[in-house]
Amino acid sequence: MEDFDKIPFYKERTIGERMTAAIDFMRENWPVMFRAAIYMLLPLSIVQSVAMNSFFGDYMGFYIGLDSIVDSESELAYALRMLSSYGILLLCLLLGGILLQSLTFTMVQEYNEREEGLEGVTFGMIWNHLWRNIKRVMKSTLACSGAVIVMLALSLLNPLALILFIPAMIVLIVPMLMFPCIYTFENISMKDAVSKAIRLGFGTWVGLFVINMVFSFIMNIISQAVSIPWAICAVMAMIFGEVDDVSPWLETTVHVLSFLFGVMMMFVTYLAMMLQPLSTAYHYAHATERKDSITMDSDIDNFENLE
């Protein structure tokens, strides 16, 4: 059996090395992560494509073909249908973010715990671990969302507080990016995870900010590129819907292509988004090693246990 060189987890790294570790992990374990993404994220991408095409068609039709809409149904009913599609789309995005982080963190944990990394790992083998992480990421995400809503509501009571809200959020959001990661990787309470995220996050604020900015930029480029086929088909479907002499088969074909390209756009975007939680996980490992010296403490314990 060939020697298997695993990517070390708890290790101090430069910003570039942290991003490289995330990319190396994705490249090394691409087949396993792709198969798991098909199980978890492809069905969600299908639902999102349906909601997205429905919302886009209703939104454009509301402003372009308003006269024809009024003849067929009330503006209120049309607006409610458009808002329901938008609500489903937002719900899918929230659920997608939770599943994406849970899957990525689980893969990193399984990789670190197994001598051969993710070689031979199947979806069924990681399900119990994954389900535990889904619950913890969901709790941390909802807690953060609730805190932001409460802070926003309180800031609306005072104009000065409203002005300070945005810069305060920028400063606080960066450290809190590690909150779901810490709450998932460590068996601690949510309160302790928040405290540790603030401590480690502010101590390595610049690095975490730069890493997320770079990968956000990369993900945006990929997302924009894969959205072009969908956008073309969506616009064609809207135009064909307003033209009377278009053959039914051509209109149906464009709608089917719009749906398929929408699924492809969302799924590829999710795959690209894996780099962000991966880089956050390696940044957490870097910050933990730098502040708490996990590897050194482990080596001392192992030395003391030698006979």
Describe this protein's structure.
The protein is mainly α and about 300 residues long. About 85% of the residues lie in helices and about 0% in strands. It has 13 helices and no strands. α5 packs across α6. It is globular, with a radius of gyration of 23 Å. The relative contact order is 0.14. The C terminus is likely disordered.
Number of strands: 0
- In terms of DSSP E residues, the strand content is under 5%
Query: Structural class of the helix and strand makeup?
Result: mainly alpha
**N-to-C SSE string, H for helix and E for strand:** HHHHHHHHHHHHH
How big is the Rg?
Answer: 23 Å
Give the overall average pLDDT: 86
End-to-end C-alpha gap: 30 Å
Shape: globular
Fraction of residues in H or I helices? over 70%
Contiguous helical run count: 13
- Poorly predicted runs are 296-307
Largest sheet: none
Characteristic key phrases:
307 residues; mainly alpha; disordered C terminus
